[in-house]
Amino acid sequence: MQYLLLIYDNPAEYAANYDTPEKQQAHMAGYFQLNAELKEAGAMLGGEALEPVTTATTVRVRGGESLHTDGPFAETREHLGGFYFIDVENLDEALKWAAKIPAAQHGCVEVRPVMLIPGDK
After folding, report:
1. Which of 6, 10, 60, 107 has the fewest CB atoms nearer than 10 Å to its CB?
2. Do residues 32 and 105 make contact, with C-beta atoms less than 8 angstroms apart?
3. What pLDDT, on the 0 to 100 scale, is given for residue 36?
4. H or E stretch at 30
5. 120, 26 in Cβ contact below 8 A?
6. Total Cβ atoms within 10 A of residue 22
7. What is the rounded distance in angstroms from the CA atom of residue 22 to the CA atom of residue 9?
8. How many angstroms separate the CA atoms of 27 and 71, rounded?
9. Smallest Cα–Cα separation from 110: which of 93, 94, 87, 90?
């Protein structure tokens, strides 16, 4: 089954927890280790870090007109900062991988099954 592991973090808390280059480097090492483990297990389909939410543009179509707004759709403390796209046997396995994501220690990781659409490969 395929899952998207959505990584949410509070930018203010991140800045407070990783306020030195050494702390940031150690934090990123956790991601590099996880990437290697996912690839070695054959579970990694993809994943990326995202630019800050301040760079987002929200698109809505109303009455046939495309409306663009700078920034996110909703004001929240935790922002989507990245994702992993994995293929594993079941939800329990996906949850185990999600718990290994460094941000899960101070933010959260939302685990979402990918909807399988009949006839789609």
Report:
1. 60
2. no
3. 98
4. helix 21-40
5. no
6. 9
7. 19
8. 26
9. 94
Give me 55's structure tokens.
Answer: 């760079």
Taking alpha carbons only, the member of 58, 56, 107, 101 closest to residue 78 is 107
Task: Tell me which amino acid residue 77 is.
Answer: R
Tokens of 56: 């987002």
pLDDT in tens, 18-52: 999 999 999 999 999 999 999 999 999 999 999 98
Task: Report d(CA 34, CA 41) in Å as an integer.
Answer: 10
Q: Which fold has domain 2-113?
A: Alpha-Beta Plaits (3.30.70)
b/e 3-12 (16+ beta carbons within 10 angstroms → b)? bbbbbbbbee
How many residues can be counted in the chain? 121
